[in-house]
UniProtKB/TrEMBL annotation:
UniProt keywords, alphabetically: Disulfide bond, Hydrolase, Serine esterase, Signal
Name of this chain's protein: Carboxylic ester hydrolase
Top-level taxonomy: Eukaryota, Metazoa, Spiralia, Lophotrochozoa, Platyhelminthes
Entries under PROSITE patterns matching the protein: CARBOXYLESTERASE_B_1, CARBOXYLESTERASE_B_2
Signal sequence range: 1-22
Enzyme class of the recorded protein, top EC level: hydrolase
Length: 681
C-alpha cells in the first residue's frame, strides 16, 4: 500500500517523464521509405530506411536485438549476448519499427495528463514486453568507412520507467545536424531490472548489464553504420545520467567509450543506489506481496524461481508496495546496488579514493542541470493541492500569507471538503514533514537550518507576510539542489579532483535556463526537469513532434541548433566549442576547473549576441551547505543522545501548524525520471 495518498499522481508522471524520442516519420511513412541494408561481420543483415532531415539524408535502423530476450529462466539475470546472426543476405532483419518498451509502472496516464501534451510527451508510445532488449541507430552516412563520432543515449525514468521509443528521443535530427551517429537502447527497469536476491539467480543491476550489453554491441558493430568505435560518447538524463556515471565507475564498461555527458544526475545522488542488504529487504517484501515466500523462506534461489512465474504486470504493480514505511518520499523502489561485480564500491567512496586506486575512467566530461529541477516533482509530490477544480495547475493559495477574508473562507471550505490534502499554512512545516536527514531520525535543528538557508518563508523566522510563489521558489530550490543540482555539481568537483591539473581530459558545465514559450504548462513551473532534451534532440526541427505536442519560437530553434552543435562537437573532440559558424565566437564555453568553476548559461540569445553568459561557482554555497554543514549538524545531534531509543522521530513543527501527523520519514527532495518523468524521475 502506498504511504501517501497523493503519491500515485507523481508516480504516473514520473514514469512518464523518463522517455523522450523524436521520430520525423510515422510507421506507415517508414514502411514506404527507401530501404538500405547493413551487413555485419558476424553474418547479420539489417535493413533500415532513409529519410530527409534538415535537407540531409539520414539512415535509420530501429529495433535491432542486442541480447537474448530476458524471459523465463533469464528473468532477473544479466542479459546474455545473441549467439546467432540476425537476418541474412536473402532475408535481412526488418529494422523499420520502434522497439517495444520494457515493462514499467504505471501502465497508463491519468485523465488530466491525457489533455496536456507537455505531460503526454513522456508516456510510452509502443507496446510493453519482457522481450524488449533492442537498440536503435541513426546515421548521417551509408559509408561504412566514414568514421563518424558516435553518441549513445541512455534514457531516464528513475530506474522504474522510460523508453527509447519516445518521440523526443528520436536521434535523426541530432545525427543530421551534428554529423554524428546516434544510438539508443531499451533496458529493463523496476523489479525486472534491479531486484537483488541472489548472486546467481537475481544478482541485481540487470538494467545496467543491459546497457553494458548494448554499448558492447555498438562498440563491436557501429563501424558498419559509419561510426568510429574509438569515438563513442555516452549521454543520458536523470537516471540515464546516473547510468552514464556508473559506466565511468564500472570495470565492465570503461573500455567501450571515450566521453560522457550527464544531464541532471550522477551516481552520488541520494536516490541513485543502495546497499545489497537494503535491496535484499525490498525484494523479500515484494516476494511476500507476490506470495513467493512460503514459510518466510530466505532462500533467494527459491524465491527468484517463484517470482519468475508471476506476471510482469503484477510485479510492476506491486513494486511500490514493497517499499518500507520509512522509505524516502520519491525514493526509487528498486535501484542499482553497490558491492557487486558491476559496481564494487559505494559510488561516493569510489570517486573520493579514485586518485589513489585509479579505478574510475578518466574521460572528457560534459554535465549540467536545468534552472528549476524541482518544480515538476513538487507538483506531483503534493498532487491534489495544485489541481484546481477546472483541471488547471495552480500554486496553493494558502502558501501565501496572510489570507484575506474570502481566501480564509475558501481555505476553511477545502479543509472540510478535501480530505487527504496537506493544508498547512506555514511552509516550514512542509520542510519538517518532507525533508529527511537519514533513516534514523529527524530533528528540528536540521529542518530549521535548512529552512533558513533556503529562505523558506515562516513566522518562525520573523516573517509576517509572503507570497505563494515565494514558498514554491524556496521549495523548488531545496528540491532541485538536494536531488539533482548538487549531485551533479559535487560529481564535477570530485571528478576534477581525480583528474588533477596535468591530465589531457577536460570538464564542461552548463545551466540550462530557457523555458519554451509555447510549453502548455503554467509560467510558474519554470524550466523543468527533462525539458532541455527538446533542445538536445532538436525537436524544434521535428514536424511530427510539433504536430503531436507543441512548437517552438525562432530563437528557441536557434538555441536548439547551438545546443546540438555543442553536444556533437564535444562528442567529436572533447571540446563543445569549435563552431563552424559566424553566429558564435569560437570559444563560447570555458572549461570547468577548481579555480573558478566556470559554466555556460544556455538560454535563447539575441541574434546580435556572439556568445552566451558565463557564470562561476554554480550553487556552490548551497551544495557545500548540504554536503558539509548538514552532516555537521547531524553529528552534533548524534552526540546529544546516549542511544538510538532517545532520538526524536519527529521534528518540532513551526507556529500555527495545522499539519497532519508526520507521515513517516519523507522527503520533498526528489528523485527522478526522469520521468521520468520520470520520465524524470
Amino acid at each position: 500500500m502506498l504511504r501517501i495518498g497523493l503519491l500515485p499522481q507523481w508516480l504516473l508522471v514520473a514514469a512518464a517523464m523518463s522517455a523522450v524520442l523524436l521520430q520525423p516519420m510515422g510507421s506507415e511513412a517508414q514502411a514506404a521509405a527507401p530501404r538500405h541494408t547493413v551487413n555485419l561481420t558476424n553474418g547479420s543483415s539489417i535493413q533500415g530506411f532513409t529519410s530527409t532531415v534538415r535537407s540531409r539524408t539520414v539512415w535509420s535502423y530501429l529495433g535491432i536485438p542486442y541480447a537474448k530476450p530476458p524471459v523465463g529462466a533469464l528473468r532477473f539475470k544479466p542479459s546474455v549476448p545473441l549467439d546467432s546472426p540476425i537476418g541474412n543476405s536473402s532475408l535481412p532483419y526488418d529494422a523499420s519499427k520502434k522497439p517495444k518498451a520494457c515493462y514499467y509502472w504505471p501502465l497508463s496516464p491519468q485523465e488530466f495528463e491525457k489533455t496536456n501534451p507537455a505531460l503526454m510527451m513522456w508516456w510510452n508510445n509502443t507496446e510493453m514486453s519482457e522481450d524488449c532488449l533492442y537498440l536503435n541507430v541513426w546515421s548521417p552516412t551509408s559509408d561504412s568507412a566514414a568514421g563518424k563520432a558516435v553518441m549513445v543515449w541512455i534514457y531516464g525514468g528513475g530506474f522504474f520507467g522510460g523508453s527509447s521509443s519516445l518521440e523526443v528521443y528520436d536521434g535523426a535530427v541530432l545525427a543530421a545536424t551534428g554529423d554524428v551517429v546516434v544510438a539508443s537502447m531499451q533496458y529493463r527497469t523496476g523489479a525486472l531490472g534491479f531486484m537483488f536476491l541472489d548472486d546467481t539467480e537475481a544478482p541485481g543491476n540487470a538494467g545496467l548489464y543491459d546497457q553494458y550489453r548494448a554499448i558492447q554491441w555498438i562498440h563491436e558493430n557501429i563501424r558498419a553504420f559509419g561510426g568510429d568505435n574509438s569515438q563513442i560518447t555516452l549521454f543520458g538524463e536523470s537516471a540515464g545520467a546516473v547510468s552514464v556515471s556508473y559506466h565511468l565507475l564500472s570495470p565492465y564498461t570503461q573500455g567501450y567509450f571515450r566521453r560522457a555527458i550527464l544531464n541532471s544526475g550522477s551516481a552520488i545522488a541520494w536516490w541513485a543506489s543502495e546497499s545489497r542488504s537494503t535491496g535484499w529487504s525490498k525484494s523479500l517484501a515484494l516476494a511476500d506481496l507476490a506470495k513467493c515466500r512460503p514459510g518466510n523462506t530466505r532462500d533467494g534461489i527459491r524465491i527468484a524461481n517463484c517470482l519468475r512465474q508471476v506476471t510482469p504486470e503484477l510485479l510492476q504493480q506491486q513494486t511500490w508496495n514493497a517499499m518500507s514505511d520509512t522509505a524516502l518520499f520519491f525514493d526509487v523502489p528498486f535501484k542499482p546496488v553497490f558491492g557487486s561485480d558491476f559496481l564494487p564500491k559505494m559510488p561516493a567512496e569510489q570517486l573520493r579514493d579514485s586518485k589513489m586506486n585509479n579505478d574510475v575512467k578518466k574521460a572528457d566530461l560534459l554535465l549540467g542541470v536545468v534552472k528549476d529541477e524541482g518544480a515538476f516533482w513538487i507538483m506531483y509530490a503534493l498532487g491534489g493541492i495544485f489541481m484546481h477544480k477546472n483541471g488547471n495547475w495552480n500554486i496553493p493559495f494558502w502558501w501565501g500569507q496572510p489570507l484575506d477574508q474570502q481566501l480564509n473562507r475558501d481555505y476553511d471550505f477545502l479543509v472540510q471538503n478535501r480530505t487527504g490534502l496537506d493544508m498547512d499554512k506555514d511552509p516550514y512545516n512542509l520542510v519538517a514533514r518532507y525533508f529527511i536527514v537519514n533513516n534514523t531520525h529527524l530533528d528540528s535543528l536540521v529542518t530549521e537550518a535548512v529552512s533558513f538557508e533556503y529562505q523558506v518563508p515562516s513566522k518562525l523566522f520573523g516573517r509576517t507576510s509572503w507570497t505563494a510563489k515565494e514558498t514554491l521558489d524556496a521549495l523548488d530550490d531545496l528540491t532541485s539542489d538536494r536531488s539533482f543540482k548538487c549531485p551533479t555539481v559535487d560529481f564535477a568537483e570530485m571528478y576534477a579532483q581525480m583528474l588533477g591539473t596535468n591530465g589531457s581530459n577536460s570538464i564542461w558545465m552548463y545551466s540550462f535556463e530557457q523555458r519554451s514559450q509555447m510549453l502548455p504548462l503554467p509560467e510558474w513551473t519554470g524550466v523543468m526537469h527533462g525539458y532541455e532534451l527538446d533542445y538536445v534532440f532538436g525537436t524544434p526541427f521535428n514536424q511530427r513532434f510539433g504536430t503531436e505536442f507543441y512548437n517552438f519560437t525562432t530563437s528557441e530553434s536557434q538555441l536548439s541548433d547551438d545546443v546540438m552543435k555543442f553536444w556533437t562537437n564535444f562528442a567529436r573532440t572533447g571540446n563543445p566549442n569549435q563552431f563552424n559558424s559566424s553566429s558564435l565566437s569560437g570559444e563560447a564555453w570555458p572549461a570547468y576547473n577548481l579555480s573558478d568553476r566556470s559554466y555556460i548559461v544556455l538560454k535563447s540569445r539575441p541574434s546580435t549576441a556572439s556568445s552566451f553568459r558565463i557564470g562561476q561557482n554554480l550553487r556552490k554555497r548551497q551544495c557545500d551547505f548540504l554536503r558539509y554543514q548538514v552532516p555537521n549538524i547531524v553529528r552534533q545531534i548524534g552526540a546529544r543522545y546516549d542511544c538510538s531509543s532517545d532520538r526524536r522521530s519527529e521534528p518540532t513543527m513551526g507556529p500555527a501548524s495545522s499539519a497532519n501527523a508526520l507521515q513517516g520519514k519523507l522527503a520533498v527532495i526528489i528523485l527522478v525520471a526522469g520521468l521520468v518523468q520520470l520520465s524524470l524521475l
